[in-house]
Amino acid sequence: MKRNAFTLIELLVVIAIIAILAAILFPVFAQAKEAAKKTSCLSNVKQQGLAFTMYANDFDDYTPMFKNAVTTNATGNWASGGYWFDLLQPYVKNFNVVYCPDRNLLDNGLMKYLPNSASGVYNEPGYGYDDGFVSDSGFGLTSQTLTAGYNNNKTYRPGKNESMIVAPADMVAFGDSYDTGSMSGAMDNIFSGPDGPTGTSKIRHGGKLNFAFVDGHAKLITMVAGTYSAPDGKYWVARASSMTDALKWCYDPNAVADYLSFQSDSSGYPVNSATETCSQVVADWFNPSYFTQVN
């Protein structure tokens, strides 16, 4: 007698095969999607890196300041100024490249970075500037100068002249960051956002973050997450996995912190001494007495 239907056993076998294939393929699809995001992010960083070099060429080889006052046009929308990546916009003319595609913290329900000058709200971009191996240290591309009348007498943070940088092709300019608000790529800020990784295994892009360098090229750097025990507290921080890469946040390994030029607290933030050089600070972060990796 001719049979026109599958038996229950046959259907169950087919379903089991489909389930097995799905279990095999879904992780592959997820990995492919993540690889695409990592590549797209690297492209974003590369485009902004080229804009970074053009900005410096137009401003007597000075790198962008960390943040400047925002100016608006006749309709009240952003025209110029803002954070360091806003200053690069005249050379990029595309806010889409400011937002890391792997960034999962949204502001106002928007995924793209668009400065809102009226409310002062900025959608989080997911990229941070090298303002020092640790923030406000003067080791990076900004200097700290107390300026009367500037932003309620706060610290003015201009860029550095590229002639001061020992190895422009080997110094990080900016890159992947979870930091909220200050858009900093310093090791004590870079993982501090509310969507920051809870351990090394949770770092985006498979633990390899995208960074642009002062000469405009971009590449991945392997990072780790952990805690740093400083004289003034314990911090949740990031660190490049190798000391060679960590030194890429120093414009000069022998540069001394400029904390004392604008604050009286000599304990540092978070360094062991306000007079340490950048290479000494990096060495501290590879000392297990201070840094504890969290997997």
Uncertain regions spanning at least 5 consecutive residues: none
Fraction of residues in β-strands: 15-25%
Global geometry = globular
Beta strands, count: 10
> What percentage of residues falls in helices of 4 or more residues?
10-25%
Largest sheet: 6 strands, antiparallel
Task: Return the average pLDDT rounded to an integer.
Answer: 83
Number of domains: 1
Number of helices: 5
* Rg from Cα: 23 Å
What is the distance, rounded to the nearest whole angstrom, between the alpha carbons of the first and last residues?
63 Å
Structural class: alpha+beta
SSE string, helices as H and strands as E: HEEHHEEEEEEEHHE
Brief overview, please?
The chain is an alpha+beta fold and 295 residues long. It contains 5 helices and 10 strands, in the order αββααβββββββααβ.
Describe this structure in words.
This protein has five helices and ten strands. Strands 3, 6, 7, 8, 9 and 10 form a six-stranded antiparallel sheet that branches. The chain has a two-stranded antiparallel ribbon with strand order 1-2. With 295 residues, it is of the alpha+beta class. It has one domain. A hairpin with a 5-residue loop joins β1 and β2. 24% of the residues lie in helices and 18% in strands.
